[in-house]
Amino acid sequence: MTVPIPSLSLTITPPGGSTVDYTQYLAYNGAFQQMTINQNFGRQGDTAVIPLVDEYTTTPHVMVPVMSRITLRDNHLGLTLFAGVVNDPKLTPSAPNRNEWLLGCTDYTYYADNSRPVYGPYFNGYTADQVVIALTQQANCGITAAPVSAGGFVAPAIQLPSVAINYQSLSSAWRLLARQASQVTPYGWYVDENLQLHFYDSTTAQNSGATFTTSPTVGGSTTEGHIVMDNMFNYEWDGTSVHNLILVQGAAETIHAVSNLAPTDTWRGDGVTSAWPLRYVFAGVQRFTVNGAQTLVTQLHPGEPPNGQSNWYVAQNANGAWFLTATTPPPAGSTIKFWYNYQVPVIAQAQDTQSQALYNGPNGGVFGKYISDQSLSTASMALERAQRERIEFAFAAERVTFTTSPDWVGWVRSGQVFHMNNQFVPDSQNNYSWGLNAAFLATQNRITFTQGGYRTMQLTGIRI
Description:
Strand order of the largest sheet: 12-13-25-28-27-26
Helix content: 10-25%
Number of strands: 28
Shape: elongated
């Protein structure tokens, strides 16, 4: 089959100006640098380097002001390959009547990267997608976000018991919320050519309709791409980050003693002892009795001596331990009861027994991870963090990287699903028998344009 000649178009709109067609100046070869697009799902915006060559007689034809909007389209597919902002244009006069432009571009995430700071506490069970939409509206940077139910592209996500967004850029908040939402399946995001936010997980990712194979059946297809089996091909079972027992410690939580219930600590005096260690980190007096009589107890600050107002004091020693002390020891047989507030660390644990059984060894298959995060103020927040880590890291990620041949004229963007049919890779989900036919989520894509506008993709995907 004859491979169709690509048909690309390039338009640029200067700030406050009219759209100009610069298709004829696209340079696929002969320029200082090749035309490339780099895509990442849910990490940062896509970037592009687009070279233009302007050969003129008297007056240059091309002028690209910084912060112009740019759109590159494939006319055969009817798809936008890249749209965003020319945030770093470079001009090189390469001859007396020849200008070469190198346009450094970022997709419309650039507006979110540089938005007015967003912030806000979200309590009472907001879902992650509701917070994403609210913050996008708050930023008011030209990007819109709407739920799938209303015709938008923000997919439903889990309920968050509470989340505090400190002042940060909108794209930074998206990354935070994608992590918060990734308790069942990982979430990611991107901004499309219409400045609409797509926020979703792999279960709701759009299928590109493309299959990449090592057994070609057709050339010049928009749906069947061919894998180049060169030294760039790599299939990885990444166990370096496997963790199937997650212990998360958050901030300290204050437990308030109830004076009509059992005391926090109880001692019996022997007539000699004048100091008793507290079992917990002291956080305030509720009630104190000696032989049933209500008694005053005073808290001393480090290094502060007793002031004589009371016989009983609570103080912290040089090692950080808390003690109840008496200036004069109580008589032998005295019953000392102390109700006090105390602090305990917020701790949660999650484990995956299936992962532990699969990777069983001398360690019992347990691969542990400890996380300390002082922003987690409740047990539910710590548990959600532990569960999120378990979901993402309980099993070795299967990752493929390969290059497509230039005869493929279709398109896959990072964040879409594609299929791979590869006879040279064993299938871990089928007893490692040779030959793998599975779905992958594209996480990175580097597109390089060659002569005539043909393109190759260096594609990275994670098996789903």
